[in-house]
Amino acid sequence: MEIYDHLANKETLIIYMTKDEGVGIPLSGGMLTQGSDTRILQDSYDYRPVHKRTVKIGERLTCSSVVSSLQRRILPTDWVVTSVESYEPTQDVPGFREVTIAYCERQPLTLEEFKEWVYDTGVTVSADSFGGDEAAYQAWQDSQKEPVVTGVG
Q1: Average pLDDT, stretch 85-110?
Q2: Judging by DSSP bridges, how do beta strands 98-106 and 12-18 pair with one another?
Q3: Please, are residues 83 and 19 in contact by the beta-carbon 8 Å criterion?
Q4: Rg for the chain (alpha carbons), in Å?
Q5: Coil, strand or helix: which one is 4?
Q6: Is the model more confident about 98 or about 126?
Q7: pTM for this entry
Q8: Nearest CA-CA partner of 27 in 39, 16, 15, 18
């Protein structure tokens, strides 16, 4: 007999926040949040299978920066997870399967460590991306080149 799990397809909300109640991050938002701080560093949703949804102690938070239309650069932050708590909802129709709070402490990196952490992500575009159409792939490559600007003499 199979047991019905009404939360089977619901995601896990993960909230990364500062462990120290005295440490806050200034909120941006103009007059509405002027002078206000938050302990929340980042939030995310985990849609992986339930048995793979874990936040690990020692995990370093990262952020990303746009390098090009096909590439992002992942950068480490000073924040590292030092403890984790999970809460399951008591309501019958929750917005998510569980809420995980990952408490973080500031652990700055040296310049050398920072450089080791930085990496680029991106999409590899090939003729296969265009269904094997070499002409379409070549046209796309040409569209990605920087235009050459020449002066009028």
Answers
A1: 84
A2: parallel
A3: yes
A4: 22
A5: coil
A6: 98
A7: 0.65
A8: 39
